[in-house]
Design goal:
It is a single chain. The protein is α+β, with helices and mostly antiparallel strands. It has a domain of 63 residues: Winged helix-like DNA-binding domain superfamily/Winged helix DNA-binding domain (Arc Repressor Mutant, subunit A). 26% of the residues lie in helices and 9% in strands. It has a 3-stranded antiparallel beta sheet. α1 crosses α2.
Length: 108
C-alpha cells in the first residue's frame, strides 16, 4: 500500500540563520552605518555639519533638488552619517557650490 503525500511528515521550518550561527545577523536595510573615514571623535577646526534640508535652505533651492543632486552623484560624498541620514561639512559644500555655480549671487 502506498502512503498518500499528505500523510508524510514534513520537516520543521527553520530560520535561514538558525543553522549558520546562534546569533541573528545585523540588519542594515541598505543604509551605510558610517560614511567616509571619520573617527568617532574627530578634531575639526571648521566643522559645520549640515544635512540636506540645511543645504537646501542655504543654497535657496527645494529639498527635493538636493535629494536629486545626491541621487545623481553631483554632491560630494557625505562626511558623516547621523541617525542614518547623510551629513556634509558646510565649507566643503560651499566650495562645491562655488565651483558649480550653484551658490546664490548674494552670497558669492
Amino acid at each position: 500500500m502506498k502512503v498518500p503525500p499528505h500523510w508524510v511528515p514534513r520537516q520543521p521550518h527553520r530560520h535561514p540563520w538558525s543553522e549558520r550561527s546562534k546569533r541573528k545577523p545585523s540588519i542594515n536595510y541598505g543604509r551605510k552605518i558610517l560614511l567616509g573615514t571619520v573617527s568617532k571623535r574627530e578634531q575639526c577646526d571648521q566643522c559645520d555639519p549640515v544635512g540636506a534640508s540645511e543645504i537646501a535652505e542655504r543654497l535657496s533651492v527645494q529639498p527635493l533638488t538636493v535629494a536629486k543632486w545626491k541621487l545623481r552623484g553631483h554632491l560630494p560624498e557625505p562626511r558623516w552619517s547621523i541617525s542614518g541620514n547623510p551629513c556634509w561639512n558646510w565649507p566643503q559644500i560651499e566650495a562645491w557650490a562655488r565651483e558649480t555655480g550653484r551658490l546664490p549671487a548674494e552670497e558669492a
